């Protein structure tokens, strides 16, 4: 593929036409797509989380399914199950909505931990084991999950093991006044999502994901990543630091960021840019730190500020 960065920029621009005022979040989501990682969008209702997920599926032109997570949702409602055919007297497997390229898990924290865990294998290994049989999921496979952080009644916090499988966690935030006025007029007659045209094909995504893995990462940059992660494990304010999976995901995200920027090598700047999105949700703070006004993002910022940047 010639000049992939131009096509990646075209995808980002198309998504920004639908979700205004959040270019950094959109760019990070596109990087996650290129890196083959899932995304958790945590923010208040009405800021465009679901719209952004729909826009990604439409702009990439791949099969898209949406699951509205509720307390009574069962694992079989996600994965699928065998259905009895009374005419033939046999069972036939009926695939669930997880068999798609982009899966929107809307309000994922409203389902029970048992149901949430149905996504664990799919998110980390791109296949699902159902009734003792393994089924490969379509490639690429991306989970876009949303959750509301301000309403806790009838919700179940995501297990740490599941949080660790999300490449990044995004917060869209409120738009500024000028952007919000633009949104009012942009949606006055029709929604921009209705006019969004495909930018990538399924094959384009596969090709770009293969190119990401060939991006060069110098050993000194890898050591920089590992040192940042190691310091999270030694911080007294954290009960649990970032796992080796976190190191690998930051490594892969930096490769994707380099490709999006038109480079065939990773810079320390890529690490500094993506660490605040990749690392905080993998960390568990002590109760004293949590209720003392310290956030995981602040701890990551402090670590980035004191770890020597390779030159």
Describe this structure in words.
The two termini are 31 Å apart. This protein has helices at residues 4-18, 23-35, 49-60, 75-79, 113-116, 120-125, 160-163, 177-186, 202-212, 219-234, 244-260, 268-278, 287-290, 296-306, and strands at 38-42, 64-68, 80-85, 90-95, 102-106, 127-130, 133-136, 142-147, 166-170, 238-240, 284-285. It is built from 14 helices and eleven strands. Helix 10 packs across helix 11 (244-260) and helix 12 packs antiparallel against helix 14. The longest helix has 17 residues, at 244-260. A five-stranded parallel β-sheet has the order 2-5-8-1-9. 45% of the residues lie in helices and 16% in strands. It has two domains: 1-186, Rossmann fold; 215-311, Magnesium chelatase subunit I, C-Terminal domain (Helicase, Ruva Protein, domain 3), CATH 1.10.8. With 311 residues, it is α/β, with parallel strands linked by helices. The relative contact order is 0.16. The radius of gyration is 20 Å and the shape is globular.
What does the secondary structure layout of this molecule look like, with pairings?
Layout: H1 4-18, H2 23-35, E1 38-42, H3 49-60, E2 64-68, H4 75-79, E3 80-85, E4 90-95, E5 102-106, H5 113-116, H6 120-125, E6 127-130, E7 133-136, E8 142-147, H7 160-163, E9 166-170, H8 177-186, H9 202-212, H10 219-234, E10 238-240, H11 244-260, H12 268-278, E11 284-285, H13 287-290, H14 296-306
Parallel strand pairs: 1-8, 1-9, 2-5, 5-8
Antiparallel strand pairs: 3-4, 6-7, 10-11
